[in-house]
Amino acid sequence: MSKKRTTNDLPMESSSTTGAARTDGAASGGSSTATRGNPARRPRWKQPLATGVAAALLILLPLLLTPFHQDLATRIVILALLAMSLDLIYGYAGMISLGHAAFFGAGGYTVGMLMVDGGVTNFWVGMAVSVLVASVVAAIVGFVALRTRGIYFILVTFAMGQMIYSLAQQWDVLQTSGAEAVVGIAPPEVSPLVIQWTSLNMYYFTLVVAGVAALVLYLLVSSRYGLVLRGIRENQQRMSALGYNTWLYQYSAFIAAGAIAGVAGVLFAYYSGIMAPANVGIAQSGLIVLMIIIGGVGRLWGGVIGAVVVELAGFLADQYAPDHKNLVLGALFVVALVVLRAIAITGKKRASRRRSEEGAHVHA
Amino acid sequence: MDCTPALRNRTPRRRLLALALAVVVALALTSACSSGTGASDDSGPLKVGILWPFNGAYSNYGPDGLAGTQLALQEAGMKVSGRTIELVKGSEDVLDPANTLREAKRLVQQEGVTIMIGPVFGSSQQAVAAYFKTTNVMAFVPFGNTKELAGRGNFIGWPTLDTSFSTPLGGYMADQLHYKSIATLAPDYVYGHNVLVGATQTFTQAGGKVVQQQWVPLGTTDLLPYASNLDRNADALVMWLVPQDAASFVKSFRSLGIKMPIIFVNGVFDPTFQSMGSDIVDSLGIVDWSAGLTNAANKTFAADFAKANKGQVPNNQNAAAYVDTKLALATIEKAGGSTSFEELKKAVTQVKLDTPYGPGHIDENFLGVTSRTIVKAVHQGSRYVWEPVKTFDNVPNEL
Amino acid sequence: MLAVLNGISLGFVLFLIGSGLSLIIGSMGIINLAHGALYMVGAYVGWSVAMDAGLPFWLAIVCGALAAAAVGVLIHQVFFRHLSGLLDEQILVSFGVVYILADVVQWVWGTNAKAPFSVPGLDGSVNLLGLIYPTARVFIMAVGIVFGALLWWLQQRTRIGAIVRAGMDDPQMVRTMGIRLDLVAAGLFVIGSAVAGAAGVIGGLVMGAQPSFGIDIMLLALVVVVLGGVGSIPGALIGALIVGLSQAVSVVLFPSFSGFSLYVVMAVILVLRPAGISGRVVTQ
User: Fold this and answer.
1) CA distance, residue B68 to nearest chain A CA (Å)
2) What confidence score (pLDDT) does residue A123 get?
3) Is the pLDDT of residue A67 over 80?
4) A81 near A210, Cβ under 8 Å?
5) Residue B343 has pLDDT above 70, yes or no
């Protein structure tokens, strides 16, 4: 049904945010609605400029860094991709998932197992299989989670994420050579290229792969498909009344986000050489949510900023306040909240008031 | 969207600004931290890193290990072979080994550490192993010494290989205690499995039978099911659990009215031991070290430790870090003050030390060889102690 | 048989935590993921009162409940009260509180986990239908049954309960009747927190107190809520018993997958009944 539609029929083009009443608690918080915009509507020259500057920085900056900080930058790039993949469902499609690290883990564990137990060192094979596995896991989790919505959806993704975590923790197959983790993962062979792995090479390799994945995400959210997702976020009933199979859109977005998270997981495994249950669990999932909220939900690049802030905070806490790392991270969550509220209150009083009235309870 | 045009126009600039800001902040921070890119030359202070958990799970270990290492360094006057020692702290993340690896790299690449005390936990050690192999770092690690890490020279495993920890226990149970069958209980992770291997193997060789082995998965909150599922026909239960789990289990076990003797591999650590002592008085255990050991080195250690730490009784982490640091210093002395990795590798196997554990040295696989003691929980004055019953010296590592 | 009893006793601890959480989520739409951290605060305070100070256990329960209620009031007044319906923000607060409290309890009570409490009178065992069983567990079951009955009575038979139930179904209408739903909600939040704190002390009899409880216990409580259906007391009880039983039974049947099997059970039930067992919330 939806295939026959043309862009002109889309209800989301301009007016629906003002007109539509919200019908479920699933869409995320009030502050960012106005900025979850259509990227295409920004002035033409500024966006390429910003993108160009950002790209130049990403490419040139590491040349000035020590290998240690190049590693740190690699890690941030990977987590930024992970955060962006979550934003596809969290920000664009309004599905608040607290189990997203599970797919990151599925990708990383798969490529790790392939290499350590199966001897598969080829990047293309490893990546393809791992992304497939991550997608399958996302398809299973998504199938269960999408039977529910609103607050329930959050709780179920939280618990399903924990299911994958306890599998990683308890299944002997996922543990190698005397560790509670998959260890001994090496950087891949990227045939036909021959790469002598250094910190800098790893950074650029990660940047290229993550860049391609981010581009896929960008194309998704700026396409008609992304527009429909935003429509569902704003008013699911209206979208299904218009003939869209909203479940299918949400489900496919969930799987796509899982697949991209899997790509990030593969990169993480190559980078760190190890995948542990902690990389899969709720702590990691929570930090990704923090990242995209700090950077701003519903805009892909928000995940990048969030990843920089959260990763640097964790790193600096380990170095300067190791005894109180939890306090530092906890404070970061609260500061993010205060800033978010401050922005929301000054900027979008009207929208947030409407939201709080309508989202105040679980709907029957 | 319904936002005003003004707001929308501002967005790209804000985004540009935000991005630039983030990058500037990142640059400022990183350049601020990258000041100490010291290489490992033989002049200037010798950097010793301590990579133990200071936050999250097992965050009590870090401060304990630090106290032990500091005592050993103070005894040496913060100097080795005439070189000043500088101690650098890193944070092991027990749950996320990738974080531990990042901290290890920071200590080595940014701080110029060549001698490392820790990391403590198996997954952390595995995570840093591949990286250490590409460096000239020598890490002295307590606990969690698996055969996968042995023999590289990057890891000096004191006091022993995990799977050889409880070796003397099997024979002791069969010959002295006349047990015919045992059940076992340990956590379902590698160290839990390994730490029982010695005992079950030697017990089987001596004609005994292991009738039940229960493994507790990580994250288990309730241990009663393991008590009620226990095979009560066995002559004894041989177990190792982290202290609070051990306490929880013993309580359930007692209140189910089970009378079987329990043998505690590695005892139960303080302070939990003090709070549950009455439940396990007269129980036996096998330990590498305990505050109650009566050898001369241990008495000196306990006295010195108490003096440096407001009268505190040392615990297992204190002792392990203390001896690991002692070993590191002795190795550098032996190498004539050199910190070249090859020299250290040669020197370390020649070191002989009287440690609080008993006399000890490092074997050709870079694993510690020292004593194991059968102990008994007794009430002594206001404290519970593990009193030595029988000591086995020079327990070999069986790879 | 023992396994079943074990499951039931663990189930009742989880019921105490889960029922409060279920009401908070159900009646206010507040997703308070810090509920487990309140349990943890209760457990630590209980340890101080019962073990450190050696005071009577009932006093420990009261103090644990009060402490958790105090923290509950604080986070409700400072944060959640202003965040009705703002899910991003609620999640941020939840995680922030979990991290901060985990740090604070280590600061106050030290980094070593606390062993299960030893309380005179609850330490031994009783003969239950020919089975020797720990007194503490029987006590927990008894408390759970009494408490569950009380909650159910409150919710089904009193005016307050009627308001809460009506508030879940149609807040607009309740408000137009001139009832201060926000006050009712705040009261519920505090009561739920106090119950979590009391549960922490009672659960401390068998599990002690650990900084990781903020997450570990939260997860189990969450599964209880998901299984039982939001806002339903009988649902929470059934959910808690399912979690407790599947934990205890899987130790015997699939020892190495005891955590995982719980979530499989949850997933299967969710596929069959997306709104949980009580089915209070229509989600399609």
Assistant:
1) 17
2) 94
3) yes
4) yes
5) yes
Nearest-Cα distance to chain C for B315, in Å, is 12
Q: What is the mean pLDDT of chain B?
A: 85
Helices (H), B256-315: 272-280, 296-308
Interface of B with A in 309-348 (CB under 8 A): none
Q: Which DSSP state fits A34?
A: G
* C93 → chain A, closest CA residue: A334
Identify the CATH class of A68-320: mainly alpha
- Say whether pLDDT at C281 is over 70: no
Helix (H, G, I), strand (E, B) or coil at B333: helix
Residue B98 near chain A (CB below 8 Å): yes
**Coil, helix or strand at residue A155:** helix
pLDDT in tens, C22-63: 888 887 778 888 999 999 999 999 999 998 888 999 999 999
- The CATH number of the structural domain formed by B166-287 is 3.40.50.2300
Considering only residues B37 and B291, tell me which one the structure prediction assigns the higher pLDDT.
B291
Q: Are B54 and A322 within 8 A, CB to CB?
A: yes
Domain coordinates of chain A in residue numbers? 68-320
Rounded Cα distance, B273 and B259, in Å: 20
Query: Which has the minimum average pLDDT: A1-10, A206-215, B185-194, B249-258?
Result: A1-10
Rounded average pLDDT over B194-200 = 93
Given CB atoms, is B149 within the 8 Å cutoff of chain A?
Answer: yes
Residue C270, in any domain of the structure: no
Contacts of A53 in chain B (CB under 8 A): 16, 19-20
Residue B323, pLDDT above cutoff 90: yes
State both tokens at A239: 């979208």
Question: Which of A169, A308, A322 has the CB atom closest to B55's CB atom?
Answer: A322
Give the pLDDT confidence of B345-376 residue by residue, as tens digits.
889 999 999 999 999 999 888 999 999 999 99
What would the mean pLDDT of B81-90 be, rounded to a whole number?
Answer: 91
Number of Cβ pairs < 8 A linking chain B and chain C:
99
Rounded distance, CA C94 to CA A88, Å? 23
Biggest CA pair distance of chain C:
58
The answer to whether domain B46-162+295-371 and domain B166-287 are alike in fold is yes
Q: For all residues of chain A together, what is the average pLDDT?
A: 82
Residue C280 lies in a domain: no
Question: Among residues A228, A225, A231, which one has the least CA distance to residue A15?
Answer: A231
Contact B190 A180 (CB under 8 A): yes
**Chain B residues with at least one Cβ partner in C under 8 Å:** 57, 59-60, 63, 188, 214-215, 217, 219-222, 224-226, 228-229, 243-244, 247-248, 251-252, 255-257, 271-272, 275-276
The CATH T-level fold of domain B46-162+295-371 is: Rossmann fold (3.40.50)
Contacts of B188 in chain C (CB under 8 A): 256
Q: Residue ranges of the domains in chain B?
A: 1-34, 46-162+295-371, 166-287
Of C87, C95, C257, the CB nearest to A170: C257
Task: Tell which of A69, A76, A305 to mutate to test the B interface (max B CBs under 10 Å).
Answer: A69
Which neighbouring-strand residues pair with B65?
none
Count of domains observed in chain C: 1
Give a yes or no: residue C59 inside a domain.
yes
pLDDT tens across B282-300, in order?
999 999 999 989 999 999 9
Domain that holds residue C75: 2-212
The residues near B137 (Cβ < 8 Å, ≥ 6 apart) are: B108, B113, B114, B115, B116, B154, B341
Residue A311's alpha-carbon distances to A111, A351, C131, C164, C209, in angstroms, are 24, 32, 54, 42, 30
Per-residue pLDDT for B246 more than 70? yes
| A107 vs A70: CA distance, rounded Å | 23
Find chain B residues with C-beta within 8 A of A285's C-beta: none
ipTM (interface predicted TM): 0.86
Is C210 near chain B, with CB under 8 Å?
A: yes
Residue C147 lies in a domain: yes
Chains touching chain C at 3 or more Cβ pairs under 8 angstroms? A, B
